[in-house]
């Protein structure tokens, strides 16, 4: 226990964030209390608040943790392919794998967006979605320049639909209580998306 109590501040903050994300995978974020977080970590609430000035600061740190890691994960996946449509698929699969590893992430992000008033954490979620959308648009624009997309495709709608496909898989996995199974369902979901945007979507096999 003494080792856990004397962790450096940065490590204690990161472990707090990881505990929050883990707990969000098991229970509703709206009902998650600082007492529950502290018990999960084996510390007092007072010890928790030595590293975070408020509960809102904990949520903000958790969203920032997710944003940094998910963008790094999908960015690295996209950079591994020179073909923009293949890069989109790599992003899709990398995003799904991240969710499978951290099933509390979707609940965390959606929980923040449901707040009746703007918060630092909800603003970070919206910033993350906008950064993600811009990354998608860049790949879709490149695919369009290469003639890989069907004529007249609305790129904004295509970027939104990409995110919607991921969210749809997440919702199915939550209903089925099988987040790990999202990985198995992801390739078929992306193939449907690809069919909807590709240049030959209107004909052929």
UniProtKB/TrEMBL annotation:
The keyword Transcription applies. SUPFAM superfamilies: Homeodomain-like, Tetracyclin repressor-like, C-terminal domain. Residues 33-52 bind DNA. GO terms for molecular function: DNA-binding transcription factor activity; transcription cis-regulatory region binding. Residues 10-70 form the HTH tetR-type domain. This is TetR family transcriptional regulator. The keyword Oxidoreductase does not apply. Keywords: DNA-binding, Transcription, Transcription regulation. Coiled coil: none annotated. Pfam families: TetR_C_13, TetR_N.
